[in-house]
Predict the 3D structure of the following.
Amino acid sequence: MTTTRRPAPTLDDARRLDARDPLAGFGARFHPVPPGALFLNGSSLGRLPVATPGVLDETVGGHWGDRLADARTQWLDLPQRMGDRIADAVLGARPGEVVMSDCTSVNLYKLAVAALRARPGRRTVVADDDNFPTDRYVLSGVAADAGGELRTVHTDPDLGLDLEVLREALDETVAVVCLSLVSPRSGALLDMAAVNKAVHAAGALMLWDLSHAVGAVPIALEATGADLAVGSTYKHLLAGPGAPALLYVRRSLQAETTQPVQGWFGHREQLSMLPDYDPDPTIRRFLTGSPPVLSIVAAGPGLDLLTEAGMDRVRAKSVALTGFLQALADEVLVPVGFRLAGPPDPSLRGAHVTYEHRAARELVPLFADANVFVDYSVPDRVRVAPVPLSTRFTDVYEAVQRMRRVVDAWERGAG
């Protein structure tokens, strides 16, 4: 049986999609990109909301500047307050289960140690070989310190982790499994509920890295029975460069988990200056030191935008954008050496779509010279991440055309 191949999307198709886009108005609520620039790299750093500088000015001038040291009292619970906002807007979690603190790697260390402590007698940590390298570095050190091992399972670099492969790696020695919900490289999206169920059946705890998922796909931590999670906030949450990460602990686990970096912000009586450490009974026990106030405050405007848009609409447009890009790339980029290096179904990916090309490392800077901003991923991948709140379908159309012109020119030069 033969199938009829659909024609490549046209510029008119892109214009029609833009005209009926319910999120079209959000583009004006971001700081403008340089003239002619096409930004399709939202999985590396989110764009600046126009409201963010004003929020920071108020905090710097109105709070720090005018109130001086007295302003400190309103910041003591800032990690929890912003954590509650993140929980409600994009995580499907409850109040009192999320804090915004430290960086993703530090939070991962805290929770991996906590998980091992909560599963005495088990010393194996499981991760996959396509997880972000820093995650594997941290987990390797945690396992070694516990006298255990890091067990690495193989993931298909294009299609993601097979659940049966994970199940085969689980036994009575496993304390914690750590995976990225969305693959940083291929964009493959895991089934959170199915993974949680498999890990729990083995008696282990599940630790999610949500860095490429939070703000990009709807997440339901409570409904899927998730245990622990960390995640970057400066990508799809638009919190800004180096913004503190999120840390999630299911409420029923908080009393039985303790973290290794004990500091005064995690103390039950923080301001009493007692000589011995007594962990707070709530999510605060996972805090350590003074919060980076300006960076946490800067997360607010991005959350405002995502809350107003709604994650279901954000996800729907993301799937449409990457599907449109894929259909166009099939006709424009695949004939010049590009190969889709991710799941072919847009609903099985996060917010980015990845292509393999033998000269990816060389081409990505050339794309930037043509004002198309995408990302390079080892060993030979081009990662494209259109941002639902600020990318138009006509932007995607023009970006693919420019990329093709760059490749044609490169091939002429290489030949």
